[in-house]
Amino acid sequence: MFFEDAHWVDPTSRELLDLTVERVRSLPVLLVVTFRPEFQPPWTGQAQVSVLTLNRLDRRDRGALVAQIAGGTALPDEVVDQILDRTDGVPLFIEELTKSVVESGVPLMGIPTTLHDSLMARLDRSASVRLVAQTGAAIGREFSYVLLHAVADFPEDELRAALAHLVTSELVFQRGTPPEAVYVFTHALVQDTAHGSLLRSTRQQLHARIAAALETHSPELMASQPELFAQHYAEAGLVEKSVAYWGKAGRKSVALSAMVEAAAQLQKGLDQLALLPDSPERKRQELEFRSFLGAALVAVRGEAAPKSGQNFARARELWEELDSPSEFLGIPFWQSIHHTTRGEFELALRLDDDLLRLSRQRNDFVGLVLGHFSAGRTLMLVGRFASCRFHLEEVFTLHDPILHRALGHQIGVHPHVGSRGYLGMALLCLGFPDQALTPGDRAIAAAQRMAHPLSLAAGLVISTRILALLGDNAALRKRADELVAVAAEQGFSQWRAEGMIHRGWVKVKNGDVAEGLSLLRSGSTGFRATGAVMYMPYHVALLARGCAIAGQNEEASALLDDAFQIVERTGERWLQAELYRHKGQLLLRQGHSEAAEELYCKALSIAREQEAKLWELRATMSLARLRRNQGRHHEARELLAPVYGWFTEGFDTSDLKDAKALLDELGGA
After folding, report:
1. Contacts of 327 by beta carbon, 8 Å cutoff, 6+ apart
2. Alpha-carbon separation of residue 461 from 41, 207, 223, 492, 622 (angstroms)
3. CATH assignment of 126-198?
4. Using omega within 30 degrees of 0 as the cis cutoff, is the peptide bond preceding 112 cis?
5. What does the alpha-carbon distance between residue 325 and residue 260 come to, in Å, rounded to a whole number?
6. pLDDT means over runs of 10, the chain (669 residues)
7. Do the beta carbons of residue 460 and residue 483 sit within 8 Å?
8. Backbone dihedral region of 74: left (phi > 0), alpha (psi from -120 to 50 degrees) or beta?
């Protein structure tokens, strides 16, 4: 397999290339990829990849190349020396300059000094050849005879002669014969040189003719490749048409979950839109562009990325200036999600309250669905599990699968999918481990049925957290692998990092502690790089537990202290009780039983305040074991029995099995 000029690759092809490099690791395939030094792929250091740097040609090889290209033409030594000196070992420059000299027989002083000059000299041999090359270059790196004939103002015989000259000169390659022929510039620099030589007014007129010809001769492309029309209309200076087509292209890419392309296309549309005079219509168009751009940026850069926040802030300004139109309620929703992910929970909850208040006033069910979903998500993170459960269950009451079917494409994620995942988290903390698994499984199944990658990734990431908290390593490994695969394929950096974190935790639990810790660290670093703060106490706690398993107690203690600081700074308290319990376990291993007991009691107090029965059970178990080891068996049983007796499900989980075993052990006390 051969992949040439990877530095010019489009985002989707880049994803395919990255996946191919990973896949051929275990296949009998030779994959050759050429690229310039500025291209920095992530796989150059991998074991299956060998990097060969192609340096400039030395003087001997330059001379050999000149002789080969000149063929039977004998060039004077001083001309060859000039070519060798001026081309500086660049093969393309050597090739073009030698051909220029051979074709024109220029004197020594007339040899071009740059590659651009050399290419222009070859194009300028004939006015018709230059104009045909310029027209083809305006169409693109590849152009068909049919479209060229429709655009170029040339008699057919003259057009064919000019094309034949370009082919003979090896400036373009030809496939097929006219009128079915297709032509490709031999190098992107040839196209750039021809296109760059056009006067601005001529270039604009030419691109306008190309766009009009495409609409006439290939109308099906308006739906399948709107970005093609957008680019030509932008070059033509027809801003309104360019904006319209960039909008079509961006919405199409979002619908296909091609979020990298969507972000680029929508940004180009915004750049064009800025050229139009300010007006209410322009503001509404900008709001629409930013609405779709928000979903794309969340997928590509992450919910908390500064670029995402800037887009949502500007969109919020426009939304309010236009009297808060209901069809753009995704804007306040995503603004709240952005602040939640950055750990700014109080601000996010105020935004949720505003959205719910406005939606109730308007009796707007879409706004209510979005508001309840966002509020439930944030409330779960701050440890208000019962309130979280109320809001998320409201989503299911209000959600209409038919009326709200388009919400996933409008805001980037299906609210009922995300709500099921977060409801599972809340139910787990509240002490319903069996019920906790059901919403997450349904969320993933729903996302798979809808073939919506962003919703699927959101469902998978919540499922991995639930399985990690339950200690189901086998299921967690499968979910983490699924998450990494989806996130890598779609370019979801934030969720890929979470997948790597959970892969690391699985390895730690399975005994591969060194590799597991490495993945935990790199995954956490990648997660923080997106700007995300939420779930950092959870990630730090996993790393601390891994360090404790590795016997690195000092680092484990320092990490837990970091987690406490994040909790105090942000108010993310859903795991606070567990953090105190983990710190207590660490102190107990170091022989500090009194300090450990104090922290267990603190964990128990927080769990009861939050009505978090699972955390209450774990804190009680730790305290009961301590009492048992102190010989206070009766007190240990009196402490544990009522908490265990509260549970009505989850008896196959390790938490309840361990509690039952401890109660049985204490039975005779």
Report:
1. none
2. 26, 46, 34, 11, 29
3. 1.10.10.10
4. no
5. 27
6. 79 75 79 79 78 80 81 77 74 76 60 66 77 93 93 90 90 92 88 89 95 93 95 96 96 87 95 96 96 90 91 95 91 94 95 96 93 96 97 92 72 82 95 91 85 87 95 94 90 90 96 95 93 95 96 95 96 97 95 95 97 98 95 94 96 95 82
7. yes
8. beta
Residue 474 burial (10 A CB sphere; 0-12, 13-18, 19+)? exposed
Q: In angstroms, rounded to a whole number, what is the distance separating the alpha carbons of residues 641 and 485?
A: 44
pLDDT at 108: 47
Strand partners, 183: 143, 174
- Asked if 434 contacts 650 with a C-beta cutoff of 8 angstroms, the reply is yes
CB 530 within 8 A of CB 305: yes
Which residues have CB under 8 Å from 71's CB, separation 6+? Answer: 102
Residue-level pLDDT at 585: 95
CB atoms within 10 A of CB 326: 12
Residue type, 625: R
Residue 312: other Cβ atoms inside 10 A: 28
- Running DSSP on this structure, what letter comes out for residue 37? T
Beta strands (DSSP E) in 618-661 are none
| E runs forming strands in 263-383 | none
Residue 116 tokens, joined: 């651009």
- With H, G, I as helix, E, B as strand and everything else as coil, classify residue 179: coil
Closest CA to 461 of 500, 406, 427, 414: 500
Cβ neighbours of 382 (radius 10 Å): 21
Task: List alpha helices for 9-155, DSSP H.
Answer: 11-23, 59-70, 77-87, 91-104, 115-123, 127-139, 145-151
Instruction: Kindly list the distances between the CA atom of residue 339 and the CA atoms of 295, 345, 352, 637, in Å, as whole numbers in the listed order.
Output: 15, 7, 11, 44
For residue 184, give the 3-state DSSP assignment.
strand
Residue spans per domain, the chain: 1-54, 59-122, 126-198, 207-277, 575-669
Helix (H) or strand (E) segment spanning residue 173? strand 172-175
DSSP 3-state assignment of 183?
A: strand
- Please count the residues of the chain: 669
Check: CATH 1.10.3720.10 for 575-669? no
CB neighbour list of residue 309: distance below 8 Å, 6 or more residues apart: 338, 342, 531
Under DSSP, is residue 492 helix (H, G, I), strand (E, B) or coil? coil
Residue listed under structure tokens 């305006």: 138
